[in-house]
Known about the structure:
single chain; alpha+beta; two-stranded antiparallel sheet
Amino acid sequence: MFFALGALLLFAPADSLPAQQIPADELPPPGTDTGLEGKYDPQNGIAQVARGEAQGVAIIFQDDHVVVFMPPDEVVAPGHVLVVPKRLGARNLLDLKPDEMRDLLVAVQKAAIAQKNGLGATGFRVQQNNGLSSSQTVYHAHFHVIPSFGGKAPGTPAPRRKLPEAEYNEIAAKLRAAWPK
């Protein structure tokens, strides 16, 4: 394993790197699905959106490979979107093919541009969790693109909340209108 820091290239064995660990008494039993391994659930909520079956979800953009949508529940900030592959079966980042990663990251960038131009975001963060120990809760690969707005000190993100339907639809319309071509 190697890490590039500026022009310096560091080589380190993978087992020597510190990692966030789940306490032993909180680990699932051996053989339990932890997100990096296991069966794909085609009925998960993101899969339903990818297939066009979910109701009340604001689709911001979609093409043959990617869907960008605002989660209907628990947004971190107004304009928070998920960028997901349409292909079912990719539980996490490790299951994605290189061309799928490219398509997803292009959509992540466009989502941030739409948040900046459509909502006046002054910043954004991209979050992507893989596996139970990294807080992944839906085992379909996805990126969160979360806008931030000036006037707030950096720190712990605000808790998620459900937006009123009118505000949710208004924000979705602004993001769609600002989606780069």
